[in-house]
Design a protein that fits this description.
Helices cover 65% and strands 6% of the residues. It is built from 14 helices and four strands. It has a four-stranded mixed β-sheet with strand order 3-2-1-4, with helices on both faces. Helix 2 runs antiparallel to helix 4 and helix 7 runs antiparallel to helix 9. The longest helix is centred in the middle third of the chain and has 41 residues.
Length: 376
């Protein structure tokens, strides 16, 4: 059943990415104490099984050396300090690898679900954490009931397995007293390791149930109402009217930059009134003519006005103007199938420019060829 918010709306929506990020900043990440306990216990038992003989041999050695002290060493403060230092070093050599392994497991196991999270806000002082009333509410809440059920289940499962295993190994435990000391220590360590591993393995079942539950519970706590999702989208992406205004301003800026480039064009090809495309061509720097400005209706009129002000040639070719507008993109070269038609016009414009400058014969106005399927 979906939970309800303070406004009375049902929290039916899954948490968004922003909601999850904000929760993580507050230290609200899924955690499973059962997973932590299980990994520490199981790996601890495995460590005892594989490193038990190593630790026992080293511990036996430093205990034997530590209790074998001559009369001279007893009355020598320096010798006692040296023996004590050697014993500490030997003890650390014996249990150091095991402690290092357990430290790594204890640190990295919580990261298996929820990942790394360090939150100053979660560490801040909160009065309800030390409030007896809040404590009683937590104890008798649904979460407290779940924790009680898990604790009872763990006790019953672990106790049952422990009793069954120890009963089956009773003869071996009792037989340790009849063995030599060194052999008894080794066999005892092996039996303790086995017992520890078997009993710890029962926690795998509890962890396998608790981990999915914690993930589900965390997701349920962060669920959102439909209105919360909408409000977050407005805050994140902006209100529709603001976004519309931003797009309008961006379009105006783009048009302004485009109009500034009209003055660099070599020719304006028009419809004559509905379309206008401004082309620039530099034989030494460009492989094909470049579209520096284009538009229709009011924008086309503005392009023609700027072209007239800067005395740029305006060439009326309705089919070609429509084809250029339909097939070209701003600040890109014209497509290959329009090369020939545009080349005719550019050649005319350059010849016309030379004729006006040097007083030579005026060129004939071309009728640019355009493939029939490009005239629509």
């Amino acid at each position: 059943m979906a939970s309800e918010s303070e406004s009375g709306q049902e929290k039916t929506e899954q948490p968004t990415a922003k909601k999850l990020r904000d929760a993580k900043k507050k230290g609200q990440v899924p955690r499973s104490k059962e997973l932590n306990s299980m990994t520490i216990m199981v790996f601890g038992a495995m460590g005892l099984l594989f490193m038990g003989n190593y630790m026992i041999n080293h511990i036996s050695g430093f205990m034997r050396e530590g209790f074998t002290i001559s009369r001279r060493e007893v009355f020598s403060e320096q010798a006692l300090l040296e023996n004590f230092g050697s014993a500490i070093a030997e003890a650390m050599t014996a249990i150091g690898p095991f402690l290092a392994m357990m430290t790594v497991i204890a640190i990295f196991t919580p990261l298996a679900i929820g990942g790394w999270s360090f939150s100053v806000e979660a560490m801040a002082f909160k009065a309800d954490r030390i409030s007896p009333l809040a404590g009683f509410k937590r104890m008798f809440s649904s979460k407290g009931l779940m924790e009680l059920i898990k604790a009872i289940a763990k006790f019953l499962v672990v106790a049952s397995v422990a009793v069954i295993f120890l009963w089956s190994k009773a003869d071996e435990f009792l037989g340790l007293g009849a063995q030599a000391l060194s052999q008894s220590l080794q066999n005892g360590a092996w039996l303790i390791g086995q017992s520890f591993l078997v009993v710890s393995s029962t926690l795998i079942l509890i962890a396998a149930i608790d981990v999915p539950f914690q993930l589900w519970d965390h997701s349920q706590k962060l669920k959102m109402t439909l209105q919360e999702v909408r409000d977050e989208m407005k805050d994140t992406e902006g209100k529709p009217e603001v976004k519309s205004r931003i797009r309008q301003v961006q379009q105006e800026m783009a048009q302004r930059r485009m109009m500034e480039k009209v003055a660099e064009a070599d020719v304006i090809i028009t419809n004559p009134t509905h379309y206008a495309v401004a082309l620039k061509y530099d034989h030494g720097a460009m492989s094909a003519p470049l579209v520096v400005a284009m538009g229709k209706d009011l924008i086309a009129l503005k392009i023609r006005e700027i072209a007239q002000f800067h005395e740029i040639e305006i060439f009326e070719a309705p089919p070609l103007a429509r084809a250029l507008y339909a097939n070209c993109k701003l600040d890109q070269e014209i497509p290959g199938h329009l090369y020939f038609a545009v080349a005719q016009i550019l050649a005319f414009v350059f010849q016309l420019r030379n004729a006006r400058e040097y007083g030579t014969e005026m060129p004939d106005r071309p009728d640019p060829y355009l493939p029939m399927d490009e005239e629509a």
